[in-house]
Amino acid sequence: MELNNMKKEDLELLSHKDITNLILMETKKPLNTASLFQKIVSLLELPDSYFETKIADYYTALTTDKRFILLEDGTWDLRSRHTSDKVIKIEDDDEDEEEEEEMEDKDDLIDSLDEEDNYDDADDEDYDDDTNEELKDLVVIDEDELELED
Q1: Residue 78 covered by a domain
Q2: 59 part of a folded domain
Q3: Within a domain: residue 57?
Q4: Bridge partners of 77?
Q5: How many whole angstroms from its chain centre is CA 37?
Q6: Residues 78/81/82/83 CA torsion (nearest 10 deg)
Q7: pTM to 2 decimals?
Q8: DSSP assignment, residue 116?
Q9: C-alpha dihedral sign at 3, 25, 75, 94
Q10: What is the four-CA torsion angle of 140, 144, 148, 150, rounded to 10 degrees?
């Protein structure tokens, strides 16, 4: 399906990501974000102000769509044309938030375990007897007595 031959009404029914997919299939080469979005704006006959206000949203949409990959040179291409070693990882604040949430979940689990009374009173008496037995030969020495020994 050729994009240039499609009616504007048909194009308007497609999402920007679907149009991007068609553009990349037709051009058969990677394109940068601005070039891709400019082609979409032209095809849909949108005003230039639309380009300026929506390009950030468009970039975000591309990063979340699994059909596209961002190459090392900053261009976008279809994932199906590339192996995973050519894909760069986009650092995202969402990953940091997920790690923080995991840490909070672990902290909550630890707190809940601390609050539970898992202490066995039956072992308490045995523990005191053993401790007292070990400490009966213990001698406490003052600092002054320690200096005298030196």
Answers
A1: yes
A2: yes
A3: yes
A4: 69
A5: 25
A6: 130
A7: 0.53
A8: S
A9: positive
A10: 80
Across the range 116-121, mean pLDDT stands at 54
Position 116 confidence tier, pLDDT thresholds 50, 70, 90: low
- Domain holding 20, by residue range, is 8-88
Is the pLDDT at 54 greater than 60? The verdict is yes
Q: What is the pLDDT of residue 31?
A: 92
Q: What is the pLDDT of residue 50?
A: 92
| Spatial separation of the C-alpha atoms in residues 137 and 83, rounded to whole Å | 71
Count how many domains the chain has: 1
Going by the DSSP 8-state scheme, the letter that residue 84 receives in this structure is G
- Please give the Cα distance from 32 to 55 (Å, whole number): 12
Domain membership flag for residue 65: yes
Question: What is the percentage of the chain residues whose pLDDT exceeds 90?
Answer: 28
Alpha-carbon torsion 107, 112, 115, 121, what sign? negative
Please report where in the chains the tokens 């308007």 appear, as a residue.
12
Greater confidence (150 vs 33) lies with: 33
